[in-house]
Amino acid sequence: MNLVKTNSDNLDFKKLSALFDEYLVDIDGDEREFFAFYNNVVLENVLVIYENEQAVGCGGFKKYDDTTAEIKRMFVHPNHRNKGIARIILTELENWATEKGFTSYILETSPKLTSAVSLYQKTGYHLIPNYGQYVGVENSICMKKDS
Fold this sequence. Notes:
Acyl_CoA_acyltransferase; 4 helices; GNAT_dom; acyltransferase activity, transferring groups other than amino-acyl groups; ribonucleoprotein
């Protein structure tokens, strides 16, 4: 496996993000456009992971406040799940954010993405009240981890 630090202009990241958006259509339902608006942001800090030169997973982060990085666009292609790829991406994103001076990480996900929620909990994230645009959104849970 090969991990590449890049940004949201990366073509492989764009392809994986498009697959992620397709995957979320059924999950987000009527709120799809709401989530799409907040997910299609420019990210300066993106990781793409390759297996045999094929992009199989991605994730990114952006500044939320002076001490907090928001983890965004975590996705592993369905054909490559259950290999520990998501954990590798998440760990590397946290390390990168820490190098940039962040001391905590937040994220938003769907409660329907049970494997993602489980991964976040296993790696030290805990539920927090929904923040920002996610306040009052029923199909949304927010989590936080301090470094």
